Amino acid sequence: TIIQAMSGILEQTGDPSDKNGIKAGPSVSDILAGMYAANGVQAALLRRLRTGISSHVDIGMLDCSVASACEPMGQYFVTGYNAPRMRNSHGIIAPFDVYQCAPTASGKPTSICI
Prior knowledge:
single chain; mainly alpha
């Protein structure tokens, strides 16, 4: 949660009326760091295979989390516009939300993104 807050992810999640934001469901910072680490290890192995030179892979959870929050941050730093929290929707991609598309036996909504 600390990394999500420091990276700006917490600022993007939740209801617009919620002043504190909501933690993203899974531990996204841990997952992102693992994905970046896997890519770094693959790049290091490829470098060693091609050149015989080893590499040191250093991954920071905060760095990975900031990179994932890049769209709203870029918008803020370029225009000064601080996008509001939008629940499940998205400020640029539309439609992007959870919609009840058709009656189902379970009554669960269907999630779509086009």
